[in-house]
Amino acid sequence: MNLPTTETLLLEQKDHALHITLNRPKARNAMSLQMVHELMAVFESIKDDRSVRAVVLRGADGHFCAGGDIKDMAGARAAASNADEQNDPYYNLNREFGRMLTQVNSAPQVVIAVTEGAVLGGGFGLVCVSDVAITAESAKFGLPETGLGIPPAQIAPFVVNRIGLTQTRRLALLGARFDGTEAARLGIVHTVCSDEDIEQELEAVLTQVKRCAPEANIITKALILSVGNDELDNVLDHAARSFSDCVQGKEGQEGTMAFIQKRRPNWA
């Protein structure tokens, strides 16, 4: 695996999982444009790497991510004074974050978010594109953008997809803050733990990922993400073709044989 060199991320592969730690602790891991680009580069580098079956996203020093980096906003403000309408630095800064969310959302791996401390703005959005989210009950979630006079522009569509229109309207338009227990109730995260139990829960999830056939997981995630983005008949036609290919493929044959022989399949 050839991972890019990163300054704002810590990278470590453990068995079948790549652990990505947002590492700007002095800024509570606020997401700079550099971090956005580094995340995009890492996900691009592993998209065809079948040795990486899961990606774990978390933050350094007790915080997940406190949102966007204010310094980048200041830099965009300085650049805006000399920019024309077609080269708007605010637009480019914001849109690049949306491209990163889209890339993480569609990654073939199982993306697992582990959240503690601040989970605000961009960090909130990153959780909403994970496949599995675990949180400490003491974590603090929120969409504070409207309180700063700006919209949660690139985040809002992913939040709507995660928890629905009604709750997203309430959270975004009130700039609400809430803890991990409420995040689980709303469906933003799947499991809420005490701070001491997070590692154990993460290991349990990674063990479950390992029991699932890698190619079947990739196909299943793509199928799920296609729902609502294509005509239903097209989705079902493609799903039937994928099913047929998998049944006749190596994983389908190995899975069936393992079941008959009452053993774990070779990918587990």
TrEMBL record:
**A Pfam family in this protein?**
ECH_1
- The organism's place on the tree of life at top rank: Bacteria
Q: Which Gene3D superfamilies match?
A: 2-enoyl-CoA Hydratase, Chain A, domain 1, Lyase 2-enoyl-coa Hydratase, Chain A, domain 2
What protein family is recorded? Belongs to the enoyl-CoA hydratase/isomerase family.
| Name of this protein | Enoyl-CoA hydratase-related protein
The organism of origin for this protein: Alkalimarinus alittae
